[in-house]
Amino acid sequence: MIYLYPMKVCIINGPNLNLLGRREPEIYGNQDFESFYKLLQLEFSTLDLEYFQSNVEGEIVTKLQEFGNRADGIVLNAAAYTHTSIAIADAVAAIQVPTIEVHISNLLSRENFRHQSLIGPYCKGSIMGFGLNGYRLALHSFIR
Ligand code: DQA
């Protein structure tokens, strides 16, 4: 008999995403991530979800290394570190687990400095511009 464990998918959010709902709602919407995450847990009950948020670059690197050893997939919104962090890009490149980059806003329609993602080249794919729904799209891609 084959027993299938639920696929473990970890969501990692970077700096200032703890302020979702209050932060620039015209760009990022009115919903806070904690209540959205509760909906995701209900909607994606066949996945074993875990969520981590940090405003600290090194903590995100450490979490990627940890999840890289025990997750089947990672959904990463590195927020502003997307555009600056070689350390986070290296961490994504170092792990075998497929990582999907998510951005709530459409980076390409915003300031020039947001057009480049240092992390994107090491990700399986990138989703941007669909609001919080982008996380749903990323999770769907992990369903067997
Ligand atoms: C963001 C876009 C980044 O440029 C910005 O720094 C963020 C959020 C997004 O989800 O749209 O903090 O990653």
The name of the CATH superfamily reads Dehydroquinase, class II
What strand line-up does the widest sheet have?
Answer: 2-1-3-4-5
Rg to the nearest angstrom? 15 Å
The share of residues in extended strands comes to 15-25%
Largest sheet geometry = 5 strands, parallel
Which hetero ligands occur in this complex? 1,3,4-trihydroxy-5-OXO-cyclohexanecarboxylic acid
Inertia-based shape: globular
The number of distinct structural domains comes to: 1
CATH topology: Rossmann fold
Q: How far apart lie the N and C ends?
A: 18 Å
CATH architecture: 3-Layer(aba) Sandwich
- Oligomeric state, counting identical vs distinct chains: single chain
How many separate helices? 5
Helix content: 25-40%
